Amino acid sequence: MSGAVVTTLPLDQILCGDCIETMRGLPSASIDCIFADPPYNLQLQGELRRPDESLVDGVNDEWDKFKSFADYDNFSKAWLIEARRILKKDATLWVIGSYHNIFRLGVLLQDLGFWVLNDIIWRKSNPMPNFRGRRFTNAHETLIWAARSADSRYRFNYQAMKALNEDVQMRSDWYLPLCTGHERLKNKHGLKLHPTQKPESLLQRVLMASTDVSDIVLDPFSGTGTTLAVARKLGRRFIGIERHPDYVVAAKERVAAEEVLTPDKLVITPDKREAPRIPFGSLVERGLLSVGTVLMDKRKKVKATIALDGNLVNGQQRGSIHKMGAMLTNAPSCNGWTFWHVKIDGQWQELDVLRNKLIQELEP
Amino acid sequence: MSGAVVTTLPLDQILCGDCIETMRGLPSASIDCIFADPPYNLQLQGELRRPDESLVDGVNDEWDKFKSFADYDNFSKAWLIEARRILKKDATLWVIGSYHNIFRLGVLLQDLGFWVLNDIIWRKSNPMPNFRGRRFTNAHETLIWAARSADSRYRFNYQAMKALNEDVQMRSDWYLPLCTGHERLKNKHGLKLHPTQKPESLLQRVLMASTDVSDIVLDPFSGTGTTLAVARKLGRRFIGIERHPDYVVAAKERVAAEEVLTPDKLVITPDKREAPRIPFGSLVERGLLSVGTVLMDKRKKVKATIALDGNLVNGQQRGSIHKMGAMLTNAPSCNGWTFWHVKIDGQWQELDVLRNKLIQELEP
DNA sequence: ACCAACTGTGAATCTCAGG
DNA sequence: CCCTGAGATTCACAGTTGG
């Protein structure tokens, strides 16, 4: 398949091969979200021992060895260019790394036209200590979340993130444990199958924040398939790319065993922006408000009257509920739904109450 | 003074001028530590308002405007080259930034031959929320700590950092509040004097970790003088460079008012590496241990006998307390002081106890 | 059965003075 | 400059063993 562009996406599959070559075979503007956990270029020298003389099993794989920063940059640029090509206009991309490589990736993203939305800190609850006492414990990794371009209208499930964080905004620092215990895939000798398997909790946060049900998620360095397994669980479509056949085999088995959440379990707090849009005029059309009704702000400082076309009128001034709120208070903008109040059954209430009532009626 | 290299450092002063030009006037290899809080290149588009329509007073100063990433890179490279020149061989440098600029700075550091030691996350306890609800709350900034080169024997007050953190290693994520309240310098209108004044707690952590008393600390973007004030308080020497005369005036006043901690208050937990070196043989010479005494490891698995020259003997094997500990346990190395135990008054105790006793006697 | 003690391990750029 | 050898250095969990 190398080189040949397919017209139908290989959905819910794991492709074995080099990620740059394999991405070249995929059509442009077809992917909603990419999560990438590329080699970190750790540049480890000799062996490292713990104070008890036991040996640290560091990352010593061939795939993490680069001759120089320039080599690493060339490799990174090549896969990021392909990644950007296959992303839809409003898509986003995540990369994860440490201080060894994350600065290189950040600069490439910025130079290639991606638009950085956040850098996210994965604070590890149980990091490996610094055994020589010569640096601060390296207790975090960094993720960069970027839109394909500055004008991408990307997805961010703000309310769902807020709900996950006890109803305050989700911050850029996430505290999550390493992938250990039964979640960690083992080989036949009982040793870790992959040196850098990421925890599912991290991927769940990522996909819950930035993708929708049925979105297409691609992981160009899919390894043991954590991204793919979580995508499947969350009802997203996925494409994995992995060079090492052993990892592909293990990931296929893992993903197949993953249970898909039923649609009712995938419902999240909707963002207000996604609620059906109700023009103020339709409240008038439908008779929830009648022409000539007087509206006032909360403190009864300003007032206006409803016109037949759904505009408000005050003397010579005329405009939408938003525009009139802004004009009468000399504000640059105004949310008319929460600014204006109307007397219903003797009680002054926000217009938003009526809007919500109509939304309820319109839903099945 | 521009261009003319001075032979004596302008210690405990704040120089008004461009940092690149001013650093060119300083001698090479003369500074122990640089802390830099450069312009962030924020690329703010238009004004930002809170949900209540009040205006967010963002960073919008001339010094934070760069035409492009390339401009920002050129500027950053120029000052980092001068910074590296004036640093001593074993010196370290700190820079702080956000995702707008920190990746550029990290790449430049790596490409110029600096050696990254840690990236540190300043987690803000009270960050500004994201008013639009379109991203995660940007609740942190990133610091990079780098040595002048990979072979620098840099200073890191490991034990002091550990002591500050309830006796566990200090991690790479620091939780500290923003600079607010009385600490925040105000202008004559009661408004904040500088848009990005850093908290003293952050600088104190930085200087306590990576400098010694009397070290020379330079801040090329000294602003309101936070670095300089903390350096003075902690008994370090300082040099500030700042382009804006108003900030220089305010910083001079602030620094002059800063109280210097007395030497007794500047004592920190010393690293063992800095303790006076006691050869094991001197314990034998001074009669704290006698020839022929039997030593054993903690679990009484191996033993050895003290020889007249301070070596240990076991059958044909002979060597220092460290070498014998390593040999008898097949370990690559061993700290004999904590490995071997000796019976004193019926109690088995670490050799280290005797060493500490001798150190006590030798001190005034 | 239950608890205490022990063992293993994680993306790691992990020493330095003195001759 | 290089080489030698003293000697400094670990946190949070998970899993297993032993009492």
Quickly name the level 1 CATH class of the largest domain in chain A.
Alpha Beta
Number of domains of chain A: 2
Radius of gyration of chain A: 26 Å
Distance between the termini of chain A: 46 Å
| Quaternary structure annotation | homodimer
How is the CATH topology of the largest domain in chain A named?
Rossmann fold
Portion of residues in beta strands of chain A equals 15-25%
Tell me the overall shape of chain A: elongated
> How would you characterize the largest beta sheet of chain A?
8 strands, mixed
Q: How many strand elements of chain A?
A: 14
Structural class label of chain A? alpha/beta
H/E element order of chain A: EHEHEHEEHEHEHEHHEEEEHHEEH
Mean pLDDT of chain A: 92
Into which percent range does the helicity of residues of chain A fall? 25-40%
CATH superfamily of the largest domain in chain A: Vaccinia Virus protein VP39
Strand order of the largest sheet of chain A: 1-8-7-2-3-5-4-6
Q: What CATH architecture of the largest domain in chain A do you see?
A: 3-Layer(aba) Sandwich
Largest interface here, residues on each chain?
A-B, 50 and 52 residues
Low-confidence runs of chain A (pLDDT<50, min 5 residues)? none
**Helical region count of chain A?**
11
